[in-house]
Write a structure and sequence with these properties.
- The protein has 275 residues and is an all-alpha fold.
- The protein contains eleven helices and two strands; from the N terminus they run αααααββαααααα.
- The protein is 68% helix and 3% strand.
- The longest helix has 30 residues.
Length: 275
Amino acid sequence: MARIITYKEKDCFIHRLCGLTKLIFFILWTLTTMLTYDTRVLGVMLVSSIVIFKFSKTDWKQVRSIFCVVLLFLTINVLAIFLFSPYEGCKIYGSRIDLFRITERYTITAQQLFYELNVVLKYFTIIPSVFMFITSTNPSEFAASLNRIKLPYTASYSVAIALRYVPDVQTDFNRIKNAQEARGIEMSSKANIFSRIKNMSAILFPLVFTSMEKIDSVTNAMELRGFGKHKARTWYSARRLKKSDYIIIFLTVVFSAVALIITFWKGSRFWNPFV
């Protein structure tokens, strides 16, 4: 049976943090990763992400399938960068060291490999924090945290519903996939990649229609209960910030500030080891 990526209550330090703390960490961590191309900063962040992922007690088997999909997407992205801009790294770092030639148009350079290494590091820095955030944050508490930073409670509640709906979508996907395979539509590794992509439409369309039906049911139920009538609401799952939350927020802000200072110290967000 396929593992479902969803929130599970666990007794560990990260799970005991307030949803607002994890939200601030996730936003600052993601922004820092997106802005920097400094390999030194990304290396530290990658190690930190792996340590945080380990401390969150996230089950690897629970996220393995999604990680494989992300890895496939990353491979396609890296190849596309090289195919469409094989000398982007040379332009960025202002030099060129040829390693070996593939064709007349494509030559592997040290600068291009280094640039694409940074792209890979950026992905692997964010991915563990995304998994940690999803599996360690109560959707209702997360909605309360969004409302606390002045996001309208209707929008906050929509985010909570979306997070709660992710496991349902995964369950429906697996159920429809098993039903289609029982009808003789091959979607396992036995079929070639093009056949699997073509056969995927046999899952996507029923999944979309099933999801739309559930959305309509939830919308009608919320309207019948008068959701959105009042300007404010209370939250059952809201938490107050504790000492540990303030410490983590402080450390996250300091780390992000230091990382960005190091990144832009010489006026460029690219660390150049070729000078």
